[in-house]
Amino acid sequence: MNCPFCHDTKFKVTNKRESLEGIRRRRECLKCGKRFTTYEKIAETELYVIKKDHSREKFDVQKIKKGLDKAFEKRPVQKNKIDQIILEIEEYFRKKGKKEIKSQTIGEIMMKKIKKLDKVAYVRFASVYRDFKDIKDFKEEIKGL
Question: Which has more pLDDT, 101 or 139?
């Protein structure tokens, strides 16, 4: 690896933490003193999602992120807690060792994690995931809380 500014190969790591992109490292070049960020991600086997119509598509963590962001929109929940849910879900399925996952399984796990964090976000997510048709469906879900 080279410094993106002076192309020297000597630098030190000033900060390291996990993020959605992988392991994030802040580095400082020992020659020019400028700082830059690098990301490490372990190359993992491809996961596929089996959808309700039995079609297959690659597992996309961004779809999970999008669904959670929509559910937690304007809710008093810290961003890092939502990011933690995303990491936990992805890690859970990768540790399972399976190459295919049913979309229903992903949805159910997401619902459990959302429910623990925020009940309103849970009802929002459930209304889309379970395709509520009318107010009766909302009442039944809320009664179950």
Answer: 101
Q: Which domain holds residue 90?
A: 48-144
Q: Reduce the DSSP state of residue 138 to 3 states and report it.
A: helix
What region does 100 belong to: left with phi over 0, alpha with psi -120 to 50, or beta? beta
What is the predicted pLDDT for the residue at 15? 94
Residues 6+ apart with CB under 8 A from 20: 61, 65, 83, 86, 87
Indicate if 122 and 63 belong to the same structural domain.
yes
Q: Do 30 and 7 lie in a common domain?
A: yes
pTM > 0.70: yes or no:
no
CB neighbours of residue 110 within 10 Å: 21
